[in-house]
């Protein structure tokens, strides 16, 4: 029977063996044997000062990927079985090894205890790596730049002799960067440094790694760093779906030509920030759960994504491997980014001005090199500002401040955001503040319909060429004031409900609009997104702006005592005149005030028939001379509205050079009466005279008759004497 001391020694020995053979934290060396290449061969590990092999039970591309990464040998090309590189010797140290594919060393993977296995050397694991690592440098994007390779841990470049799209296609494929777009010549991405490792590279285009292409040999070259090869790939494509914004949504990736989703297992702000950075969408604001942007479709490409937060692309982060996951589309990862915020500055309009973008916590400007209507169209679209009307350069809206951050911006014109366009890179430019880009957009077109006035009616907007309405859910005076301001219609006077101006037609573009009240355009206010609503046209929002009230003042005179001159109205003293205040709208009830500069007295009246009030001046006097203006005042609920004064009406009282009309009338009446009396008296006298004359004639006639009967004396005597 062993003593206690002996048993303790045995236990301690076994513990030491266990610690020596099973502690992954200790790490171990890895090499590839049985091949001329240090990046292809039988996998061997160095444990307890002895090289041994690895059993291929469960060995696949994930384990092989870790080996290639640990050896700086690029990507896995193959994981051959059955001792493709010959039988090993010595102990079989590892069996049933299991890696996620993201580990930096084979020692981080799970496995049986060291030396615990059930296989022979005929099952030694092997791997074929791409020989060297490839990366793209000199660009903000991990999928564009100068081609660099690491050989034996030393970074070098590739000569561009014979370099074309076939070679570029292989690089893009190896880096999971999509398709090759261009192979720019010259120092587009700057000159490299170190050795020029490759020259005369010739690929068919179908290779999985640049190491599989033909080449002159390592270090054999006849060019300098001014001829470093470069490539622009379409990118390990990432997009955000299920949202109106290109910077918010469900994360989708396309590693091999098919769009798929990312599982949200372990998804955090570090992963989300990489996505936002890759999309030029600022920083991650939120990582909502529960498929808030809807369930995706197609393959689930990535799971257990783990980023440090500094990567330029999601493709650089660790994950289980493309297509390896344990979740469904109800767990699709999503992100809400701050966005590459764009604004237009130094203009009265929110849809015109100098182009500025927000990056690195500050607003920066854009160089106008190559800036035209295509780029302007993208800016207008991103800001919901309608169509591009102009693309100005030369700091048309004044010089900005801070850095000029973007140069060489190139858009097709169809992009949803300026972040989707190509550019030289953040902060890379050759221009100053006198060359800043600007744009003039047509604006998020807005109008008020269903009324005779352009400043009152049903609110309608046209975000993409089709007029539609706005739901009145949450519609208040802050929202209405923005509309009135945008239309230069003053302030909101009323926000009537119940489709006062009739029901609209077409799409309902906006719902749950929420403005602060100081925005220059409705496009700056928060809302659910264009076309997202839960209401019908009977809930169309409406507004009556203050400028819908067209207040007017006029002056009339019932007689001819009024003369209009360039200075105003001249009213003859003693004549009457009338001043009338009126409105045009049927939506206003209230009282009018007539203000006079001469007496500073106002007359207040409630609304009269036909929305007008008349102020009578029966006899014009000199104290009535002065400037007159009308003011309208109304109260709706607890809001009091008072219009601005009308333009002053100048009234001048002048003395008459002639008798007043009343005096003339009196004189005429007196003369008429005098003439009437005169004619009456004359008539009476004439009649009396005629009566007297008739009596005399009658008497004379009788006298004449009497004398006719008497014989003349002379005549009878003469006959007797004869």
UniProtKB/TrEMBL annotation:
Establish whether keyword Repeat is in the entry: yes
Give start and end of each Ig-like domain. Answer: 558-645
One protein family per Pfam: SRCR
- According to UniProt, the name of this protein is Deleted in malignant brain tumors 1 protein-like
Recorded source organism is Xyrichtys novacula (Pearly razorfish)
List the keywords (alphabetical): Disulfide bond, Glycoprotein, Membrane, Repeat, Signal, Transmembrane, Transmembrane helix
Signal peptide region: 1-27
- List residues of the SRCR domain: 30-130, 134-234, 238-338, 342-442, 446-546
Which example biological process does GO assign this protein? zymogen activation
The record lists the membrane-crossing segments as: 658-681
What cystine pairs are annotated?
A: 55-119, 68-129, 99-109, 159-223, 172-233, 203-213, 263-327, 276-337, 307-317, 367-431, 380-441, 411-421, 471-535, 484-545, 515-525
Its GO CC terms?
Answer: plasma membrane
- One GO MF term attached to the UniProt entry: serine-type endopeptidase activity
């Amino acid at each position: 029977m062993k003593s206690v001391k002996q048993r303790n020694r045995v236990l301690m020995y076994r513990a030491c063996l266990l610690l020596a053979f099973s502690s992954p934290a200790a790490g171990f060396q890895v090499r590839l044997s049985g091949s001329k290449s240090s990046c292809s061969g039988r996998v061997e590990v160095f444990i307890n000062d002895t090289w041994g092999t690895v059993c291929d039970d469960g060995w696949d591309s994930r384990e092989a990927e870790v080996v290639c990464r640990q050896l700086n040998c690029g990507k896995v090309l193959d994981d051959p079985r059955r001792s493709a590189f010959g039988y090993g010797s010595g102990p079989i140290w590892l069996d049933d090894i299991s890696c996620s594919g993201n580990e930096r060393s084979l020692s981080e993977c799970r496995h049986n205890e060291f030396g615990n296995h059930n296989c022979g050397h005929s099952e030694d694991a092997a791997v074929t790596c791409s020989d060297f690592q490839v990366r793209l440098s000199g660009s903000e994007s991990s999928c564009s730049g100068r081609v660099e390779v690491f050989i034996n841990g030393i970074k070098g470049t590739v000569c561009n002799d014979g370099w074309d799209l076939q070679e570029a296609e292989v690089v893009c494929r190896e880096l999971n960067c999509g398709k090759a777009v261009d192979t720019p010549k010259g120092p587009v991405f700057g000159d490299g440094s170190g050795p020029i490792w490759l020259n005369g590279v010739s690929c068919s285009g179908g290779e999985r790694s640049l190491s599989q292409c033909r080449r002159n040999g390592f270090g054999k070259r006849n060019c300098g760093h001014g001829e470093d090869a470069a490539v622009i790939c379409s990118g390990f494509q990432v997009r955000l779906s299920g949202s109106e914004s290109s910077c918010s949504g469900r994360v989708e990736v396309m590693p091999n030509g098919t769009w798929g989703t990312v599982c949200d297992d372990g998804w955090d702000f570090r992963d989300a920030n990489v996505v936002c950075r890759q999309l030029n969408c600022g920083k991650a604001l939120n990582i909502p759960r529960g498929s808030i942007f809807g369930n995706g479709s197609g393959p689930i490409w990535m799971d257990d994504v783990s980023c440090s937060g500094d990567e330029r692309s999601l493709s650089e982060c660790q994950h289980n491997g493309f297509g390896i996951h344990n979740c469904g589309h109800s767990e699709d990862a999503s992100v809400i980014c701050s966005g590459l915020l764009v604004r237009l500055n130094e203009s009265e309009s929110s849809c015109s001005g100098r182009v500025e973008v927000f990056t690195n916590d500050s607003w920066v400007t854009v160089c106008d090199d190559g800036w035209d209507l295509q780029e302007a169209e993208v800016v207008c679209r991103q800001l919901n500002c309608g169509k591009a009307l102009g693309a100005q350069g030369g700091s048309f809206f004044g010089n900005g401040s801070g850095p000029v951050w973007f140069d060489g911006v190139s858009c097709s014109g169809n992009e949803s955001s300026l972040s989707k366009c190509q550019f030289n890179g953040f902060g890379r430019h050759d221009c100053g503040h006198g060359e800043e880009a600007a744009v003039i957009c047509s604006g998020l077109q807005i109008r008020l319909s269903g009324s005779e006035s352009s400043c009152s009616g049903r609110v309608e907007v046209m975000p993409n060429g089709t007029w539609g309405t706005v739901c009145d859910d949450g519609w208040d005076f802050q929202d209405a004031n923005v509309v009135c301001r945008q239309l230069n219609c003053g302030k909101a006077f009323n926000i009537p409900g119940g489709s006062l101006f009739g029901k609209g037609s077409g799409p309902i573009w906006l719902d749950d609009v929420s403005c602060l009240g100081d925005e220059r355009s409705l496009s700056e206010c928060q809302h659910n997104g264009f076309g997202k609503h839960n209401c019908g046209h009977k809930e169309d929002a409406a507004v009556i702006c203050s400028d819908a009230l067209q207040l007017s003042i006029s002056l009339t005179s019932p007689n001819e005592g009024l003369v209009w001159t360039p200075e105003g109205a001249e009213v003859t003293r003693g004549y009457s005149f009338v001043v009338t205040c009126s409105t045009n709208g049927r939506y206003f009830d209230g009282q009018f005030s007539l203000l006079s500069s001469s007496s500073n007295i106002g007359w207040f009246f409630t609304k009269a028939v036909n929305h007008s009030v008349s102020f009578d001046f029966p006899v014009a006097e000199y104290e009535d001379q002065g400037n007159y203006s009308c003011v309208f005042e109304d109260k709706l609920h607890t809001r009091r509205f008072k219009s601005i004064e009308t333009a002053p009406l100048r009234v001048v009282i002048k003395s008459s050079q002639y008798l007043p009309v009343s005096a003339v009338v009196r004189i005429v009446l007196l003369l008429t009466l005098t003439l009437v009396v005169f004619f009456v008296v004359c008539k009476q006298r004439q009649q009396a005279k005629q009566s007297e004359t008739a009596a005399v004639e009658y008497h004379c006639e009788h006298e004449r008759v009497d004398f006719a009967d008497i014989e003349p004396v002379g005549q009878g005597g003469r006959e007797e004497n004869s």
